[in-house]
Amino acid sequence: MNSRFFSSLALRNIQANRQLYIPYVLASVAVIAMFHLMASLLTNEFVRTRAASLTMMFEFGTVVIAIFAFIFILYTNSFLIKRRKKEIGLYGILGLEKRHVAKVLLFEMLYTGLVSLGAGMLTGFVFGRLFFLLLNYMMNLPVQLDYSTTGVTALMTAGLSVSVFLLAFLYNISQFTFAKPVKLLKGSNEGEREPKGSVVLFVLSLAFLAAGYGISLSMDDPLSALTYFFTAVLAVIIGTYLLFVSGSIFILKALKRNSRFYYRPAAFISVSGMLYRMKQNAVGLANICILSTMVMITVSTTMTVFVGTEEILENQLPYENNWTVYGAELTPEELTESFMSFQDRVRETAAEMGLEVTGSEAYRFQSFAGEISGGQFEPRRDIRGSGDLPLFLQVIPVADYNRLIGASVSLAPDEALFYHSDESFSAEELTFGGTTYRLSPADPASVTEDSQGITETAMLVVPDLLHIRRISEAYYADVEHEVMAGIDAHVAWNTDGTQEEKKAYAEAVESLKAGYPTSNYRSRIAVTEEWYSMNGGFLFLGVFLGLLFTIGTVLITYFKQVSEGYDDRGKFQIMQKVGLDRDMIRDSTRSQLVWMFLLPIAVAVIHVLFAYPIVRKMLLLFGITSDRTWLLSFATVVVAFSVIYFMIYRMTSKVYYGIVR
Amino acid sequence: MALLEIRKLEKVYTARFSSQKTTALANIDFSVEGGQFVAIMGESGSGKTTLLNIISTLDDATSGEVYLGGKPLSSIRDKEMSAFRRSTLGFVFQDFNLLDNFSIRDNILLPLVLSRTPVDELEKRLLPIAENLGIADLLDKYPYEVSGGQKQRTAVARALITEPKLILADEPTGALDSKSSRNLMETLKDINSQGQTILMVTHSVRAASFADRVLFIRDGAVYHEIYRGAESPDDFTDRISQSLTVLSGGGGRRE
Questions:
Q1: Does residue A14 register a pLDDT over 60?
Q2: Distance to chain A for B252, nearest Cα, Å
Q3: If exposure means fewest CB atoms within 10 Å of the residue's CB, which of A366, A599, B63, B101 is most exposed?
Q4: Closest CA of chain B from A589, distance in Å
Q5: pLDDT category, A453, cuts 50, 70, 90?
Q6: Among B79, B86, B142, beta carbon nearest to A191
Q7: Residue B40: inside a domain
Q8: Domain end position, chosen among A469, A500, A517
C-alpha cells in the first residue's frame, strides 16, 4: 500500500464527512486569518514607530489570538474526531494496521491544515487590504495607514498552523492507539461525561478570574497597567473557559434535576441536547464570550478616546478661533489698540473670503491668584500652609462686560460687579489694590472661564483698564519674587463656511499674527488635525480590531450552530416520527436563546466592567480623564453589540432550524 | 366497526422528470379488529413499508382511504398530525430510533413530554410499563449502555406509554439476535393479550407466528391471508412457511 492510496482515502474521507469538515475548515480559516491579520499589524508602520508600548500591545494581542487559535482548533478537532470514531474503528476491524490508520489521519490533517493555512492567509491578506482601504476612505484621517505584511508574518502564521495541526494530529493518533476497535465502534454515540473534579475546576476558574480582576483593580499608573494588562487578559481567558466548563454543566444538571422545568417539550429537548455534548457546548459559549469581550473592550475604548478627545478639544477651545495677546510688555493703550484692530482685521479677512463671523467673545482681563479674607482680596501668604488651590480672580473692564452680554451697565469709580463660583463670599464690599468697591452681582452669563468644578473662580468687573492696572501694581507689590503679569486680551470667534473654507480662513488669520508679536493664535481645526495625525492611527486600529473581532464572533457562532445542527438532525428526525411537530422544534431552538444569547453577553459585560480600571489607566496616556465619557461609550457599545449579536444569533439559529427541520 | 379499515388504497410514485409511474400499492383492502395482532409479510419491494408509512401518516395515499376508529386519516389537518400521531399511534422501529441524549427513562417519556403531560402523571404511567417490560432497572442508563433487546423493549415502552389505539411495528426483530427476538415477540404477544391492537410488518416467519393473522403482500396487493386457529405455534409457523414457499414460487394466481 503506497502513499497514494492513503492520500486518496484521506480525501475521500474528508469528502464523505464534509458536513463535519466544511464548518471545521471554515472556522479554522477564520481563526488563522484573524491571527495573520493581528501578526501583520506588528509590521505596520504606525504600530512600529508611534510608541514602544504600542508594539508591545500588539505583541500581546498576537499572543492572545495565538492562544485562542490553539484552544479553538484543538477543541473543535477533538469534537470532530469523536464523531468519526465509529468509522475509524471500522478500519481496524477491516484489517488496517494502526500505522496505516495513522497515515490516513496524517494525510487528512495535511489536507485540512494546508487548506486552512492557505485560505486563512489569503483571507487575512484580502481582508486586511480591503478593510484598510475602506477604513482609510471612510475615516478620512490626516494620516493614512497602509496594510503591510511580510515574510515574517507569513512564517509566523505558518508556524502557528503547523504546530496547532500537528498537535491535533497527535491527539487523534492517541485516541486510536489506546482504544480497542469495538470501543471505537460505539464511541460516537456516547454522551460526554462531566469532567472530573468539576468543583475544583469551578474554584480554579474563580481564582483565575479574581486574579485577572485583581490586577485590573490594583493598577496605579499607566505604564504598569500596560505591562500587566496582558497577564490580566490571560488569567481572565483561562478563567472564562474553566467557568463555562464547570459552571454551565452545573447549571444544566440543576435544570435537569428540576423535573417541573425539565419535563416540558422545549426544555426537555434543549437541556438534554446541551448536556449530551456539555463540554463542546461550554467551550463554544466561552469562545463567544471571549470574543464578545474583545469586541466590547476595543470598541468602547476606541470610542472613549475619540469622544473624549473631541470633548477635550471642545473644552479647551470652545471657539473655532482663539487669539490671545499677552500684555505684560504693553501699556494699556497699546493693548487696547491691538485688541480693537485685531477684531477688525478678523472680520475683514472673513468678509474677503466670503465668510461671516457667527459668534464671538472678546475681552481684556487680568487674573490674580489669592484669597478673600476680611473683605479684602490679597495674595495668599502661607502657600505651603494649606493643600487647597487659591481663588482665581479674573478682573475685566465694564466695557468688555457689556459687550459680552449685550448690557449697558455703567459703574462709578467705587463700584464693581462681582461673581463667585460657589457664592461663599457675599459681602457688599471688597477691597482690592487700595480701592474699596461697592459690589453688585454680575450676570453669570458673562463668566468666560469655565471652572469645571475644579477650582473656585471669581470675576470682578471694574470701571476701566486703569483700575486693573492699579490693582495689579498693588497686588504685585505684595508678592515677592514674582514677575509682574500684564493685562491680556482674548478674542475667540466662529465663522460659517465649510470645513475647507474654515481651514483656509485659519491659515489667513495665522498670517495676520505677524502684526501682533506678543500674541498667540490657535485654531481648533489645526489643533484637531495635529492630534489626529499623532493619534488617529489608534482610532483606526481600534475600529479595525473591533470589526475583526465582530466578524470572528459571527463566524464562531455560525460554526457552533451549523455543527450542532448536523449533530442534532438525526435526533429531530426520530422525534418527528414519534410526534414532534415543527412548532415545537422552533420552540426548542428558541429556548436556547437565554442560554446562547444572554449568558456569554452577561459574562462579557462583567469582564468589561472589571477591565475598566486598567483600561482607564491606559486612557490617561491619551489625556482622557472623564469617567462619564467612558460609561456612555461603554453603554452604547454594550447595547449596540447586544443588538448585533442578537441578529447574529437569530440568523444562525435560522440556519440551525433549516438543518434540523 | 373495525379499528383499522383500509379501503382501496393505491400509491403511485411518479418520477420527477418523467411520466414513468411506479405502482407501490395497488388496491389494498383489509381491516383490523380491535385487539388483533396482525402481521404483514412480503418480500422487499412488495410495498409493506409504503403501506405502513401511509397508516402512520408519514406518507399520503394516491387514492383510497385509511380509517382509524372510523375516522378517515385524510381528514386530519396538518397542524394536528403530530399530535394525532403522538396520541393515537405507537411506533416500534427496526433500528430502535432511541435518542442517545436521553436516558432510557426520558426516551420512554418523550411522547408524553411532547404532549405536555404533567410531571406527576409521567412517573405513574412509566413504572408499570417498565416493570412489565423488565426494564425498570435500566431507567437511568443511556441507550449506548444497554443491549439491543433492551433497547427494543425501551422502544416498545415508548410506544405503549401514550396508550395508543394501534401499535405499528416495522421489522421489530430485524436487528435482534434470535433469543432477544423471541423474548421481544413474547412481550408483544403479552401486550396483545392485554387488549392492545398491533400491526407488524416482518420478514421473519418466527416473528409472524406470534400473530393471530398473517397477511401476505406481493406487488402492492394483498395476496393471501391466513388465521391462526387453535394451532400450536409450531404448526402455525409451518403453515406460514408453506404459504410463503408456495406464493413466492411464482404461482401466478392473483386475486
A1: yes
A2: 37
A3: B63
A4: 15
A5: very low
A6: B142
A7: yes
A8: A517
In a mutational test of the B interface, the residue from A263, A264, A568, A586 whose CB has the highest number of chain B CBs within 10 Å is: A263
Residue (of A503, A524, A495) closest to A322 by Cα position = A524
Is the pLDDT at A42 greater than 90, yes or no? no
How many distinct structural domains can be found in chain B?
1
Whether A168 maps to a domain, the answer reads: yes
Buried b (16+ CB within 10 A) or exposed e, B75-84: ebeeeeebeb
Q: What is the pLDDT of residue A533?
A: 77
- Count of domains in chain A? 2
Instruction: Choose one of A154, A187, A220: the last residue of a domain.
Output: A187
- Give residue-wise pLDDT tens across range A63-119: 888 988 898 898 889 888 887 888 888 887 887 888 888 888 999 999 999 999 999
Kindly determine whether residue A263 and residue B101, on different chains, have CB atoms separated by under 8 Å: no
Domain membership flag for residue A239: no
Instruction: Name the closest residue on chain B to residue A574, using Cα atoms.
Output: B97
A647 burial type by CB count under 10 A (0-12 exposed, 13-18 middle, 19+ buried):
exposed
Q: Which chain B residue shows the shortest CA-CA distance from A266?
A: B114
Least CA distance to A260: which residue of chain B? Answer: B119
Sheet containing strand B197-202, edge to edge, reads: B89-92, B166-170, B197-202, B37-41, B213-218, B221-227
Closest residue in chain A to residue B162, using alpha carbons only: A578
A651 domain-assigned = no
pLDDT of A383 strictly over 60 = no
- For helices B148-160 and B178-193, the axis angle rounded to 10 degrees is 20
CATH code of B128's domain: 3.40.50.300
Distance CA A161, CA A147 (A): 22
* pLDDT tens, residue by residue, A454-507: 556 788 898 888 888 888 888 887 776 566 778 888 888 888 888 888 888 888
Number of A/B CB contacts below 8 angstroms equals 72
Residue A317 has pLDDT above 70, yes or no: yes
Query: Is A643 among the domain residues?
Result: no
A576 CB neighbours in chain B (<8 A) are 82
pLDDT-wise least confident of A229-243, A591-605, B190-204, B214-228: A591-605
B253 within a domain of the structure (yes/no)? no
Domain containing A427: what range? Answer: 327-517
**Most A-contacting residue of B114, B145, B151, B154 (CB-CB within 10 A), to test interface:** B114
User: Could you report the per-residue pLDDT of A153-164, keeping only the tens digit for each?
Assistant: 999 999 999 999
Yes or no, beta carbons of A260 and B114 under 8 Å apart? no
Question: pLDDT tens, B106-117?
Answer: 999 999 998 888
B114, A190: Cβ pair inside 8 Å? no
* A264:B113 CB<8 A: yes
Most B-contacting residue of A82, A571, A578 (CB-CB within 10 A), to test interface: A578
Report the residue of chain B nearest A270, measured CA to CA: B101
Judged by CB atoms closer than 8 Å, whether chains meet at B91 and A584 is answered as no
Q: Are A458 and A433 in contact (CB under 8 A)?
A: no
pLDDT at residue A542 is higher than 90: no
CB atoms within 10 A of CB A77: 21
For range A300-329, the mean pLDDT: 84
**Contact residues of B toward A, CB < 8 A:** 58, 79, 81-83, 85-87, 91, 93, 97-102, 106, 109-111, 113-117, 119, 122, 142-144, 158
Provide the CB-side half-sphere exposure for B65 (13 A, CA): 10
User: Please, which pLDDT band fits residue B252 given cuts at 50, 70 and 90?
Assistant: very low
Contacts of B58 in chain A (CB under 8 A): 577
- What pLDDT is attached to residue A385? 47
pLDDT of residue A527: 85
Looking at per-residue pLDDT, the higher value among B175 and A292 belongs to: A292
Set of cell numbers at residue B33: 379488529
- Mapped onto helix, strand or coil, the DSSP state of residue B13 is strand
B212 is in which domain, residue-wise? 4-248
Report CA-CA distances (Å) from B254 to A554, B22, B183, B221, B251: 64, 19, 36, 9, 9
Q: What is the C-alpha separation between A189 and A185, in angstroms, rounded?
A: 9
